[in-house]
Design goal:
single chain; 414 residues; alpha/beta; six-stranded mixed beta sheet; 14 helices; 6 strands; 45% helix; 10% strand; globular; disordered N terminus
């Protein structure tokens, strides 16, 4: 009683439909190209991921991502300026003579203590769900940060020591320069703001897009050491690994361990991934990223010879914890301050700069390439700037062709 009888039901037909559906679903999954974005922390994976979303997603970035970026930018600015204040004292205490310009004399500026106290009130603020009563306080916060950034010489000198002496997020000067407007209620981030904002990835994020009947799943995973153990769940049936390495990290230290050179760490991780049993038949694509920041450092006469040498130079990037570079040394051309001063011909100076740039990028690429244990394994290398849409679009078009050819080869069609 109360039951429904359906005499037309046929269990055999139903089982057949289910089996057919599962087979089609399996074939569809096979057709999807699975790309894994890997790399050490702060290499620019997430920026690349967001840029690809802007390029290939018809709707671009979600509104939620702009809101999240607003919160993160404000947090990064507060924590960034507080870190510079702390590091200015740490550096001065470590060597009074060498870091005398980093010293901040609180007694010399009666306003400075008040400005710092305003900032300290927000050191634990997430900037989410702000009520109307807080906007005046936030405007005052922006003014305090702007005052310290633009008027305290020790902060700017400390900022120039970032990288090899302590970890610091990229592009922070971009946000410091407009911090007054960022802490206003009407602030809304631009696409450039979203791409330049550092948001640490935890876990795994996925996007899927279609180009010319080819489906691509791209996975972005956290690059910090404590996040890498989570990668294992992403390894099955990977078509290609895109390993992202920051060129500018030759003059940087790791976020988790400021005694470890960031590029040394990246090369070591690439060795582990490139030779992993999980990726024996996987296409390996190397993105040497942040080429724009690398150029900026080279223009400041920071060269990779200090990173890739076997000498324990006092105060050098290899002597922070006594662990120097034990691999191949760089003895190629370096762009020095004397080159700027002695070369009155602008064209010649630019040509020599480009010569130094190419030599050093080629050397770095070779170091990564030499990590492979299987000489037959191909590594496809691209120079990238994840914040440059045109560059990413062109490079990724080449990568799609690599992935599709690899897929055809695996299927026996080439």
């Amino acid at each position: 009683m109360g039951g429904v009888c359906c005499s037309s039901f046929n269990k055999t037909d139903a089982d057949s439909e289910i089996a057919d559906y599962m087979l089609k679903n399996k074939e569809a999954n096979k057709a999807v190209k699975k790309l894994l974005l890997l790399g050490s922390g702060s290499s620019g994976k997430s920026t690349l991921f967001k840029q690809l979303k802007c390029i290939f997603n018809p709707w671009g970035l979600d509104q939620s991502e702009f809101i999240e970026t607003t919160h993160s930018i404000r947090q990064n600015i507060v924590l960034g300026i507080l870190k510079l204040l702390q590091k200015s004292q740490d550096l001065y205490d470590s060597n009074h003579d060498k870091y005398s310009k980093c010293y901040i004399n609180l007694d010399a500026d009666p306003n400075l203590i008040n400005e710092i106290q305003v900032i300290l009130q927000f050191r634990h603020e997430t900037f989410e769900n702000l009520d109307d009563t807080k906007w005046d306080q936030l405007q005052r916060l922006g003014e305090a940060i702007d005052y310290i950034w633009n008027n305290v010489e020790g902060i700017k000198h400390t900022f120039t020591e970032r990288g090899s002496r302590f970890s610091f997020a990229d592009n922070m000067e971009y946000f410091f320069d407009k911090c007054r407007s960022i802490f206003l209620e009407e602030f809304y981030p631009t696409h450039e703001d979203v791409l330049k904002c550092r948001i640490r990835t935890t876990g795994m994020v996925e996007i899927t897009y279609e180009i010319k009947d080819s489906f691509f799943n791209i996975y972005d995973v956290g690059g910090q050491r404590n996040e890498r153990k989570k990668w294992i769940h992403s390894f099955e049936n990977v078509t290609a690994v895109i390993y992202v390495a920051a060129l500018s990290h030759f003059d940087a230290v790791c976020f988790e361990d400021e005694s470890q050179n960031a590029m040394h760490e990246s090369i070591s991780l690439f060795n582990e991934i490139c030779n992993s049993k999980w990726f024996r038949k996987t296409a390996m694509i190397l993105f040497l990223n942040k080429s724009d920041l690398f150029r900026e450092k080279l223009m400041e006469c920071l060269n990779i010879d200090k990173c890739f040498n076997n000498q324990q130079q006092k105060g050098g990037i290899n002597s922070i914890n006594g662990n120097g570079w034990d691999g191949e040394e760089y003895h190629g051309p370096c762009y020095k301050e004397s080159d700027k001063l002695n070369n009155s011909n602008i064209n010649q100076d630019q040509q020599y700069f480009e010569h130094c740039y190419k030599s050093q990028v080629d050397f770095i690429a070779k170091l990564y390439y030499d990590q492979r244990q299987n000489e037959d394994k191909k590594i496809f290398t691209h120079i990238t700037n994840a914040t440059d849409r045109t560059n990413v679009e062109k490079v990724f078009w080449d990568c799609q062709n690599i992935v599709i050819r690899k897929n055809l080869s695996t299927g026996g069609f080439t």
